[in-house]
Design goal:
The protein has helices spanning 11-15, 27-32, 46-49, 51-64, 78-83, 89-104, 130-146, 160-173, 195-202, 217-226, 254-264, 280-295; strands at 20-21, 68-70, 110-115, 151-157, 177-181, 209-213, 233-237, 240-242, 249-251, 271-274. The protein is α/β, with parallel strands linked by helices.
């Protein structure tokens, strides 16, 4: 089997008898170190300004056992960078992909090109037009693929029209892609559609897998109890926990996160990672747990 070219790549998970291990957070780790911007570019400019740190985080995820590295391109899309005064988004994309490939060296690790919503991923009402959305996603996705990414990880997608734009573009150009959804505690996208409706739509596309990311463990467990999950799916959850009696945000432990992984493993996910607030220790714990299951 050719690890890179034999798509659907998630068939590889069946061969090794475990889910593929996706990496964990990049942006929140950079943010913790004060290496992000407060404008719409967020972590994007770190690719050029703090490339050593971006590389090191990737490297730590490889050493922790990740099968998939996600490029630091969550905010390198044209709209985000233009809003922060940058016109040449491709420079930031290409550097991000270069750093990911350098970190994986010759290991059989897949590089997933991160493509986020055009504006803030928790933004209910957008300020851009449909034409701008179409350009933003097509240009960003094409640049990610042309620069060497093995597939596109469309992350934290919470608006149905953007999901449709992405799917149509990738299907038309035969680009391998994953759509990962973000939704509310009521199991509804920010644009108002039920998650079940979006999953049904995606079942008629060539999407490799349906992901769920940046929601809490309680939300995904609620989802799994109310709808039938897709045949090929995966998750990487928010690892921040808000306390109601304090004005602070803390990260849950990797042990607590692993409990959720153990609850969801019975739904046969094809990939598992971690999202905001995580670090390489989370990925190391997931990989260790999965390896132990295979041995038994």
């Amino acid at each position: 089997m050719n690890f890179y070219n034999d798509f659907n790549i998630f068939q590889f998970a069946k061969k090794i008898k475990r889910p593929l291990v996706l990496d964990g957070a990049m942006g929140s780790l950079l943010e913790k170190s004060g290496l992000t911007k407060s404008d719409s570019s967020w972590s994007a400019k770190a690719n050029l300004r703090y490339s050593d740190r971006v590389y090191q985080i990737h490297k730590e995820y490889v050493e922790a056992g990740a099968d998939i590295l996600t490029t630091n391109t969550f905010r390198t899309n044209p709209i985000s960078l233009e809003q922060s005064g940058v016109s040449n988004f491709k420079r930031y994309v290409k550097k991000a992909i270069e750093l990911a490939f350098d970190a994986k060296e010759n290991l059989p690790v897949l590089i997933a090109g991160s493509n986020a919503p055009a504006e803030d991923c928790y933004q209910v009402k957008r300020t851009v037009t449909k034409k701008q959305l179409q350009y933003n996603h097509s240009a960003h996705i094409d640049c990610l693929i042309e620069s060497g990414c093995h597939f596109i990880l469309n992350e934290t997608q919470s608006h149905f029209d953007e999901i449709q734009i992405i799917a149509k573009h990738c299907d038309k150009k035969n680009i391998p892609y994953v759509i990962s959804l973000y939704f509310t505690e009521n199991l509804i996208l920010l644009s108002g559609e039920k998650v079940s409706e979006v999953i049904k739509f995606l079942s008629d596309t060539s999407v490799l897998s349906v992901g769920i990311n940046c929601v809490s463990s309680s939300v995904i467990i609620k989802l799994s109890s109310q709808i039938e999950l897709p045949g090929i799916w995966g998750f990487y959850l928010n690892c921040f926990m808000k306390y109601t009696n304090e004005n602070s945000v803390c990260s849950i432990s990797n042990g607590d996160y692993l409990v959720t992984v153990q609850e969801l493993i019975h739904f046969n996910p094809s990939f598992i990672g971690a999202c905001c607030g995580s670090n390489p220790d989370f990925i190391r714990a997931i990989k260790g747990y999965l390896d132990a299951r295979v041995k038994h």
